[in-house]
Amino acid sequence: xxxxxxxxxIFILIVLSVRPLFGQQTATERRQLxxxxxxxxxxxxxxxTLKAMARIPREAFxxxxxxxxxxxxxxxxxxxxxxxxxxxxxxxxxxxxRLKSTDKVLEIGTGSGYQAAVLSQIVDTVYTVEIIxxxxxxxSRHLQNLNIDNVQILTGDGYFGWKEKSPFDAIxxxxxxxxxxxxxxxxxxxxxxxxxxxxxxxxxxxxxxLTKKRxxxxxxxxxxxxxxxxxxxD
Length: 234
Ligand code: SAH
Hints:
By secondary structure, this protein is α/β, with parallel strands linked by helices. The chain has one domain (26-225): Vaccinia Virus protein VP39 (Rossmann fold, 3-Layer(aba) Sandwich). It has seven helices and nine strands, in the order αααββαβαβαββαβββ. The strands form two sheets. It has a seven-stranded mixed beta sheet. Strands 1-2 form a two-stranded antiparallel ribbon. Helix 2 packs antiparallel against helix 3 (47-55) and helix 3 (47-55) runs antiparallel to helix 4. The longest helix is centred in the first third of the chain and has 17 residues, at 2-18. The chain is elongated. The chain starts with a helix and ends in a 9-residue tail after the last strand. The relative contact order is 0.11. The protein binds S-adenosyl-L-homocysteine. Residues 78, 82-85, 108-109, 111-112, 114-115, 129-132, 135, 157-159, 174-175, 228, 230-232 line the site of S-adenosyl-L-homocysteine.
């Protein structure tokens, strides 16, 4: 009896140890791997950001055909010609916002809803604006499926921000703009931070961190990036 028991234990241990070789890791394990291989070595150290990235299932935000690649180190197509950013980019932009739980955050470019879901784990309320109605609807469903109820989505042109909910402590723009929309700077609160990719249409852009302190605007370039374009209704 004892022998059977110990053989069973050994068998289970062997199965568990070879399981990753056959790609049978659970989503939680794959997210841990994403943290260890893609995020932490590249300088993501903010605890809130890492915790949120470890918690949100990226596969729940991509089409069926993309689910096997959910934790790949790259952007993924989400339909309507749009993409969900690379996990590192989502984490980096989140970390740069230096969020406190009481902060009010505005995202421009809801896309799949993944970035908003990550933010929802850190702050009380996230406001997000998406210009393509079908994407806004899908994002809303993705969030509902995960019982995330602190994200509010507006369908419209994010160039105008979300006046009724302003000012915002943090603004994150996840589409590449040619210039910084002045309305967004207006809707940023004093002491607020905005992260926005800026540069020529379809070219390499710079990820800009803009801060506002006693009415003074300061801009710093963080890194070169590629993003789908920020579009206008007309
Ligand atoms: N943050 C998203 C990915 C964004 S992709 C995610 O986590 O999945 C960029 C998104 O910005 C696209 O969905 C695109 O439709 C949207 N977008 C582009 N221009 C916009 C505008 N003027 N206002 C609002 N959304 C815009």
